[in-house]
Design a protein that fits this description.
The protein has seven helices and 17 strands. It is α/β, with parallel strands linked by helices. The strands form four sheets. Strands 1, 2, 5, 6, 7, 8 and 17 form a seven-stranded mixed beta sheet that branches. Strands 9-16-10-11-12 form a five-stranded parallel beta sheet. A three-stranded antiparallel beta sheet has the order 13-14-15, with no helix packed on it. Helix 4 (167-176) runs parallel beside helix 5 (196-207). The relative contact order is 0.18. Bound molecules: flavin-adenine dinucleotide. Flavin-adenine dinucleotide (FAD) is lined by residues 8-14, 32-35, 39-42, 45-46, 52-53, 56, 97-98, 125-127, 129-130, 251, 256, 288-289, 296-299, 301.
């Protein structure tokens, strides 16, 4: 099934995008949200009973589209978004974190741990609150620079431990083998989160001794050791590495953009068309806070959704 539009992120920008799509009669629409419910930012970061202002931080916005928005409280705002999602019977998929969006032969593949979804257009509305998941044990402050969540700081000729057997972990590990000595550690006795192509690739790399896979390798704790990191595995073994890359879920907005091949400027801000919010990848749009480095507002996110939809249906 190829959707007309897949929307990544079920906050105000994502919900408004889904509603606009429905009103403009695009029926094959899927909204994917990593949390258990829509509007995770409002649920998690707003205090109970918080006043929610339409004019937020003096940003006075005239709404352009079909989705209205009013002053209220945290609770009334959540109820309102719930109601418009229900009224328009939007197709939603919760508890599903999108890892990245890739364009293959003109169709977008939206990659999640639960499988891939396909669409002609994608709207990314993931906000700015995303953080990579961290391990439960303490990371010593003195080695924070060599404890990473992506491979962008690796310098080459390093002994690197990549933790996590999902698609990101596998891809980082394989990619790093060109210039580094790489071990990939997973807690499970086999790959459970990577897709079949990645699993086949990493097992082949292991067979060819281009990297090393350690199954059942759960880490107990880590220590700093002369600028390097000593890893104590729960099975009693210990190994010293130059760097650890944790790929155990969660993602920052910038990682998401880079993994999705969206061009960013030298300040790592996404490059997009200011009228249509289309990125450097044709058919891949942004809406809401992901666009700004200093934060937007609910009304701004709702307006982006309308502008994006106008472009998708050819009115812009
Ligand atoms: C404390 C606080 C108070 C605020 N008060 C106001 C106010 O009074 N009025 C106002 O207008 N604005 C207010 N804002 C700003 C407002 O909340 C944001 O501008 C608005 O939520 C942006 O909507 P969004 O859809 O872009 O992003 P978000 O609301 O952040 O929603 C993004 C959604 O995407 C999901 N997501 C993230 N990554 C992924 C992924 N990889 N895969 C799938 N889903 C993903 C998240 O779980 C989340 O549900 C406030 C913000 C904060 C933090």
């Amino acid at each position: 099934m190829t959707y007309d539009i897949i929307i990544v992120g079920g906050g105000p920008g994502g919900i408004a995008s889904a509603v606009e799509a429905y009103i403009f009669k695009l029926k094959k629409v899927l909204l994917i949200e990593k949390g258990e419910n829509h509007s995770e930012t409002i649920r998690k970061y707003y205090k109970d009973s918080k006043r929610v202002d339409k004019i937020y931080k003096k940003q006075e916005i005239t709404l352009k589209g079909n989705v209205d928005f009013f002053d209220g409280t945290k609770e009334s705002t959540l109820d309102y978004f719930e109601e418009i999602l229900d009224n328009e019977t939007i197709n939603t998929l919760y508890n599903t974190e999108v890892d990245r969006v890739v364009k293959e032969d003109g169709i977008f593949k939206v990659v999640t741990r639960k499988g891939d979804y396909f669409a002609n257009n994608v709207i990314v509305s993931i906000g700015r609150m995303g953080r990579p998941n961290k391990p439960s044990y303490k990371i010593p402050t003195s080695i924070r620079k060599i404890i990473n969540h992506n491979p962008y700081d690796c310098r080459g000729k390093e002994k690197i431990l990549v933790v996590g057997g999902g698609d990101s972990g596998v891809e980082y590990a394989c990619q790093l083998t060109t210039e580094n000595e790489v071990t990939l550690a997973l807690r499970e006795p086999k790959f459970v989160d990577a897709n079949a192509i990645n699993e086949e690739m990493v097992i082949r790399y292991d067979q060819e001794e281009r990297l090393r896979i350690r199954y059942n390798a759960d880490i107990d704790y880590i220590e700093a050791l002369e600028g390097r990191v000593k890893v104590y595995y729960k099975n009693g073994f210990q190994t010293v590495y130059d760097r650890i890359i944790y790929a155990i879920g969660g993602t920052t907005p910038i990682d998401f953009l880079q993994r999705s091949d969206i061009d960013v400027d030298d300040q790592k801000r996404p490059i997009y068309n200011e009228n249509t919010y289309e990125t450097s990848v044709k058919g891949l749009y942004l809406a809401g806070d992901i666009i700004y480095d200093k934060g937007g507002s609910i009304a701004m996110a709702i307006n982006h959704a309308y502008d994006v939809m106008q472009h998708i249906i050819g009115k812009k």
